[in-house]
Predict the structure.
Amino acid sequence: MAVKTTPQDLEQEILDLESRLLHARKRLALASSSPSTSLPLRTDDDDDFGVTLPKETNPTATPSILSSHAFLLLSDSALPLGSFAYSSGLESYLAHNKPLPRTITPVASFHRFLKLSIASMASTSIPYVLAAYRYPEDLETLDNDMDASTPCIVAQRASLAQGRALIGVWERSFRATYASVGTTAAPAAAAAVRAIAEFSDALKSCGDTAEELGPKGHLAPLWGVVCLAMGMDARQTAYVFMLNHAKAVLSAAVRASVMGPYQAQSVLASQRLQDMITERIEREWDTPVEDAGQIVPPLDLWVGRHELLYSRIFNS
Amino acid sequence: MPIKSPFESCIAKPGEGQVVLSLLPPSNPTLTTLTYKYPLKLLTRTPGFVPKSSALTCPSQPVHLYLLTYGGGLLPGDKINVSITLDPRTRMVVTTPQGSTKIFKTEPNASVKGQRGTPKHILSDKSSQTLSVHVGQEAALCYLPDPAVPYKDSRYEQVQTFTVDGPTASKDPRRSSLCILDWVTQGRASRGENWDFHLWRGKNEVWTTDELGKKKLLLRDSLILDRELDQDQLDRNPELLTHTNLIRERTYPHGVVGTLILYGPVFENLANFVMDRFTSLPRIGARNWSSPSTVASGSSAATESPPNFDEQVTFTAARVRAGFVLVKFGAPDFATAKDWLGAILREEGTVYKEFGEEALFCL
């Protein structure tokens, strides 16, 4: 009897978790966009419930709805960046740590990887995401520096493919809506739109030979600029970047048979993951791009040695 | 031309050093500047080795530069700042004859008398080393030092900047050449130290200047090993020191990690050799169909074969942009990494042919 009901129970639980995750994301979108806009309004009443209430009744709430709409678009796993093709070194990590000692379960081993991967992704990429968000006019320099700092071609391939896909999505899908925002209403977004256009032109006019030092199209700086163009705030930009990375790794884990889809969702929804992402972003918040660097040296080795795997299902 | 006495110059600040290597006609390498100040010491020597066969036409004699510090390491607060200029067509070998660069940590406030209630664990001052090398056209730098050994609780930061002159297009024979090794160990393994330091931050950058005089970054290799503990946390909870070790977690299972950067015509053969070595490594997870036992049950077979360094050292090599070859490696201990790297460099022979046996002094 208990065995029969378990799948249904689990399904119910998943639905519940998913709706909670969605709800949490919406709340995050509101919470992280609120300090800049609604803080001055709340100085006279300290009521916590007042956080969302004035926003909904306030006619100036449109930018925040706009930004959470963009937020949902960019955090969608159906965003056609091709992220599903990359495991960020997970596949190679599993192969390098095989067979596992009896005391360590595959899931525990995966959790170690996830932690390392998130820390490393934050220390190498978040400074570039935020720098591009803050100074969109420097996009080409940031792209060059990111390219110079990526130590192996496997990681480079993954970053370039997703970055160029992001430009594609922007140009074919998002630009029509988001580039029309007036320059006076959102000067920062307009600067970002200009920066992407210039970068995209430079990218197209230069041949894509591997040795050339022209623009490349790395994901991290482009992510920052596209998010700026779509009216997201800096926290959201960094958070969605990291969450998308976590989703890609977990999705790879499911396909590499490390865990089932429900377990993957529960990891994704867990407080632990949220805290981990928030903590890493906090740590890299003010890191200048010159000080971005690898904090997990074996990860470079695993990613670089992905090419040595006898059989592989992912591109990285 | 006489070498200027280091004592006549008072320009150098403590820990600062400056070296300029020029080529006087017809092909006579001469140090036109050599200054240094405590705790840094620079010694040079021209061993009289003349490269017989070289990737370049009419190679010049390599000059050796020894980087020395009093006591063979850096104390908290020590700042070393070395600037080297290699004029076109010169060659320099930089080594550390004192062995590994030790990053010391003094006992906190041991000398402060009568002061009670000082916190037991106090983060020591950071020591730092800055090396900036300007490499002219067709000049070559061979920098194969011993690894850094950061002692328990030490904090250290190093920035090594290399600026290459002239063309960067690969295959251009007038490019500068670089061979840079940067490696760090877990500490004094014999005393049980296992990544017990607080901070080690190493950055290697290669820059170029384009026709318009604008600087452009060609390569940046940045490694941050940080326990991520700050003084406040330590004051509140000194137990943290014994409980968590982020660096150990993040470097596991390696006892030494490092990077080798190769660039330019002089090291082209070496770069190709390393790339071949990497791409011809046995596939991971492949079954050895030729032997009767499968790999999974053949762990005993692996121990019978003669020691193969490629099996003990995890490494990756990649030809990244502008013709750079970047090798990253991790090994269980210093000796293994040293043997592996030494074997590769000796087997291939470029360093020996172009700079002489002494360039491999540290390996």
